[in-house]
Amino acid sequence: MARVLVVDDDLTVREVLASYLRAGSHDVVEAGDGEQALRAMSERPADIVVLDLMLPGIDGLEVCRRLRLASEVPIIMLTALGSEADRIMGLELGADDYVGKPFSPRELVLRVDSVLKRTGHSGEGGVVSDGSLVVDADRRVATNAGAELALTTREFDLLRYLIAHPGKAFTREDLLEHVWGWTIGDRSTVTVHVRRLREKIESDPTRPERLVTVWGVGYRWEPAEVGA
């Protein structure tokens, strides 16, 4: 049973989400504002956080930033349909997923389950390596030259998927489907995560050598040279 923290200042939204999540066999904790959310996480960390961006006091973006400084807990944002800038900012701060309002509670539960499957609650294991990079799916740890990388859930999933398919070009739609589990979604989500991942694995993120852009298509993982 996973512990889910639902953060929204709308009591009705919290109650509906909590009901659906509990029906899906999750343990649910509710918070009505940013301070309550941060306090709940410090007292007993959740396995995943569902976070509304529009909160009184400490807003959702600041909560996301503070949570990401303290841990790699998966974060799913709840955003208004028109708030593209806030959504992109949330992804830049390290959120793993987003659901636009209004939304289906069933869809939200599916998103929660999808993220949890990729964070060790279930899913494929094994170790994939390429040059100095090693990705251990069982331990949810990625290292580069022996140093552990501080990756968010989706960054880890994206890196593991690309390393497992060296030399193959993927469109953003391909990656949304295979890494996020979406058949429809905002392609900028992939763009943001690729940029963040490059900052953590490339010696010069502005001139990537491993996670390269395939112009007019998308991205490709360039395998390390033998002996590199």
Structure overview:
The protein has 228 residues and is α/β, with parallel strands linked by helices. It folds into two domains: 3-117, Response regulator (Rossmann fold, 3-Layer(aba) Sandwich); 127-221, Winged helix-like DNA-binding domain superfamily/Winged helix DNA-binding domain (Arc Repressor Mutant, subunit A, Orthogonal Bundle), CATH 1.10.10.10. Helices cover 39% and strands 22% of the residues. The chain contains eight helices and twelve strands. The protein has helices spanning 11-23, 34-43, 60-70, 84-92, 105-117, 153-163, 172-180, 188-201, and strands spanning 3-7, 27-31, 48-52, 75-80, 97-101, 127-130, 133-136, 141-144, 147-148, 169-171, 211-214, 218-221. The longest helix has 14 residues, at 188-201. It is globular. It starts with a strand and ends in a 7-residue tail after the last strand.
Poorly predicted ranges: none
Largest sheet: number of strands, sense, barrel closure: 5 strands, parallel
CA distance, first residue to last residue: 43 Å
Q: What proportion of the residues form beta strands (DSSP E)?
A: 15-25%
Strand order in the largest sheet: 2-1-3-4-5
Number of strands: 12
**SS class:** alpha/beta
CATH superfamily of the largest domain: Response regulator
Tally of helical segments: 8
Question: Which CATH-level-2 architecture of the largest domain?
Answer: 3-Layer(aba) Sandwich
Shape, please? globular
Helicity range of the residues?
25-40%
The succession of helices and strands, N to C, reads EHEHEHEHEHEEEEHEHHEE
CATH class of the largest domain: Alpha Beta
Radius of gyration: 18 Å
Mean pLDDT: 87
Tally of discrete structural domains: 2
**What is the fold named in CATH at topology level of the largest domain?**
Rossmann fold
